[in-house]
Structure formats: C-alpha cells, structure tokens
Amino acid sequence: MKHTFKNLPKLTAMIIAGGLMVACTDDPTPNPNPNPDPDAEGRWITVAAARMGDNPGDGNGGTLIYSINSEEAKDPTVSIAPFDNGFIVPSNRTARLQSSEDGNTMFNISYAGDTGGNYTKYTVGGGQTFTQSGTAVSIAPYVGSAPRWVKLFDGDNTGAAVYVSTEDIFDDNGTPSDATDDTYVRTESTMGVVTLDLVNSTINEFQESIVSLTEEEEANGYYISRIDMPTLNAAGDKLYIGARVSKVDPATGESDNSGEILNSKTIVLDYPSLVNPTVISSAVGQGDTNGYRSINSFEYNGSVYQANQGDPEGSHILKIDANNQYDDSYVFNLDAALGVEDAYILAWRPAANGKAVVAYRDASSEEGVAGAQGFFALVDLNTKTGQRIDDIPYEADFYLFQYQGFVVEGTEIYLTQAPVGKNGNIYVVETETGEVTKGAQLENVAGSHYIGLF
C-alpha cells in the first residue's frame, strides 16, 4: 500500500511589538491611566487585540493584552488605546488565549514560530502588568508547534490540545492522480490528544489513535480532516472533540468539494485516559463541529451544547446528553430562531442561566475589508429562541471570524465591538433582561482588530 501524507505544518517566525493604554476621566479627551485600581469591585477584564500582519484583519502581526476591572469595562469614559504599550503575548501569529474563571490568571500556548507550542501562564496585575508564574512547558513534541487547545471547565486545572494527521491509502505504488494505476482505499486519520496540568505546568496524558468513519463513508472518500475544541462532559469521564469532515474523489484521490455534506460528528474519548475513541453523528445538524478560534461547545445542566458550522440549513446548536449521544429530539436552528438565512455561528458563550450570546453571520452580511461582517444575538438554550442584539452597532468592516473570548460574570456577558482598523467599544449584555450597556472605548489602528475579552 502507498501512503500520501497531508496536513504537514507550515511554520514562520515573527513577533511584533505593540501596546495598550487606558484612560479614565469624564473629559472628552481622557488622560492616560496605566494603573487600574486592583482593589475595585469586580473581576479583571483582559482585552485582547490582534495587530495586522500582511493584510487587514489577518491578526498575524502579534497579540497584545491589557487588563481593566469590570467597573471600568462598563464605563464609556474609559478609553483603551490598544497598540502603544501593552503586554506582548508570546506567539508568532494570533495567540490562543484562555483565562481563569475569576480573571486573575491568563493562559497562553504560543502558535507557530520558534516558541510554538510553549505553554505559559501569567498573573494579571492590571494594565500591562502580567507576571509569569510557574515554569513554561512545551507541548510541541506531542501536538506540534501550532496546537489547537482550550481550557477544560474543571476548575482551571486542565488544558487539552489536539491535532490530526491524514494519509491517503492506495493499493499500489502509482501516483494519486493516476487512476489507471491506483485504487483509492480510504483516508486514515490519526488523532493526537495531550492534557496539560495548568496549575503545575506538567503533561498529564498523551494518546494517539486512529479515528474512523463508517466503512461506507470512508469508501466514498470522507475522512476527519480537522479537530478542535475538546469539552469535558458533566460526569468528567468523557472528552468530546469537534470534527470537520472532508472528502476526496475515490477515482483520483484528489480533493472533492462537491460531495454531500455529512451529518455533524463528534469524537468521544474516555477521560482522563484519552483512549477508546468513537465517533457519534447528529441526525439534526450537518457540517463541522470543530469551530475555529473560540470555544465551540459548553456543558450546561448536565448536557453539552455544541454549535455547528457550514450547515446547509443554517447553523444549529446541537445537544449531547449524559449518555454521550446526540439528543436528536433537541432542534435549535439559528435560521429559524432569528428569522434569517444561512446563519453561521462564529463564536458563542452561554451564562449559567442557559442564555447565551452568539456571534454569527448570515446571508445579509456585507463583505468588509476582512470578509463578511458578523452580528451578535441573545439566545436561550431552554426555549430555543433568540433575537439579534440591535443595541450593538454594525458595519461592513466588523469582523468576527477570529473572535476568541467572552467574559461571563453572573448573568452578564462582556464582548468587544470594533470594526477592523476602526474604534469601537466594550458592550455588556445582561442575559436575563436583554439590556445592553455600552462600556469602555476601544481605540484601534489601521488593519488591526479586537479578538475578545478574558
């Protein structure tokens, strides 16, 4: 048999300087205040800003973070100017950030470059003060230098990173494009998962395994091509990993984007051992469940709720029950809930009451400088209803594809709104009432954008 390898990593190296500055005053032109009050009520809110690399909105010029308290975050007279003297997060491209539930600690794993795969954590001190705590550890030997990772919701104890590599398998030694010499058999997907002790900066467990679709699906050229967003179930004994399914033409072994979109799938693993992978399929949604930059699934009320992307019927929020199977009686379609077409969930986050803020685009989204713009909606997981948040302004250059972080404080959800290269604000959504508070000003520079709050 002959094996043709895909998905080899492409690495570059670049770290760029920049910064962040805060001001707090009633004057229309606020004076700089680089030292927010650490004794103020509320938690730290860390703002993340991504500098442009080669193209507006690409975020490849480096990531900067700056912290204010939640009282300041709600204050429209506070001005955050993001690219002057903030803390530069080690990462070649846009950093993959996570924060502790109380906001006092930031976690980072560098993405690509010489430091790619390095885990570091920082104590938040306000302003641009982030003090490294503990030792750094590299997970690159396990999952490469550009890992996809998230913090599990287990009391800030554990992170999980994943990768998948694939091989096209043919029955002789010809070339993939020569159908007369080669017969396509299947594409084999090998998954690696590593768990990381966030407290002690050590590796907990690493396992590598083959994840398979059905024989019929694989014979038709389907395979798992990307995985992301590990989520721990309520019992703490299973890990769910979102998946993207791709396809090759079995006659040629070449990529085929014209095939049927399969039902949404999730990989289920034993936890903490990371063994016994199985693949479950939804009968409700189609398309991918791996998300992109933001956490794509959350445990709520004993079940895990998961967004899907690329669904021909518009994105759904799917439900996985305590039996580790999709609950196909739960149908929550964003198109139907919002009265739109072609909804695509870009990022989302629920509060403890089951009400969530969803960042999405739809058929009405205009093409801006960095792609189709997005909107925010408030949805209810229990009633399967939602509505767009009209108190947040929108324009064509508002870009949410790389959005990473929301902050949840009680029933309030904090988010950023600032178009690429333009100023904006922090907004706070009270999920119980739908009331929206316009908060701190977000100052921007050409081509750059905000990627969330932590």
Structure in words:
- The chain is mainly β.
- The chain has a single domain (2-453), classed as 7 Propeller (Methylamine Dehydrogenase, Chain H).
- The chain is 4% helix and 45% strand.
- It contains four helices and 32 strands.
- The chain has helices at residues 70-73, 140-143, 215-219, 334-338, and strands at 2-6, 21-24, 44-50, 63-69, 78-81, 87-89, 96-99, 105-109, 118-126, 129-138, 148-151, 158-170, 184-197, 202-211, 222-232, 238-247, 263-270, 278-286, 297-300, 303-307, 317-320, 344-350, 355-361, 367-368, 371-372, 375-380, 385-388, 407-409, 412-417, 424-430, 436-442, 449-453.
- Strands 2-5-31-30-29-28 form a six-stranded mixed beta sheet, with no helix packed on it. Strands 1, 11, 12, 13 and 14 form a five-stranded antiparallel beta sheet that branches.
- Strand 17 (263-270) and strand 18 form a beta hairpin.
- The longest helix is centred in the middle third of the chain and has 5 residues, at 215-219.
- It starts with a strand and ends with a strand.
- Residues 1-34 have low confidence and may be disordered.
- Keywords: Signal.
- Residues 1-22 form the signal peptide.
